[in-house]
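Re: the request from the purification team.
They wanted to know what the chain is likely to look like in 3D before they choose a buffer screen. I agreed to run a prediction and write the result into the notebook, where they can find it.
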Amino acid sequence: MENVSDKLSTEKRKELSGSDFGLSKQRAYPMPDAAHVRVAEVYFRYAPKNIKPELAQNILKKAKEFGANIESNII
């Protein structure tokens, strides 16, 4: 089994496209892989209310793309 870390270097983060972020304009909540989708899900509860709809939609989209299970009810 591959060891996947949720750590993302500054250099790797800069290389990500806008679509790899939960909030592309702010380049916040990076989700280049399933591990980062799960991290974004955890931090979702701390997001401001006004950005939660967009963030939830993008988390669910990335979860489906990577086959990550979303255990919380973010919608």
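For the purification team: The mean pLDDT is 89.
Please add any questions underneath this entry.
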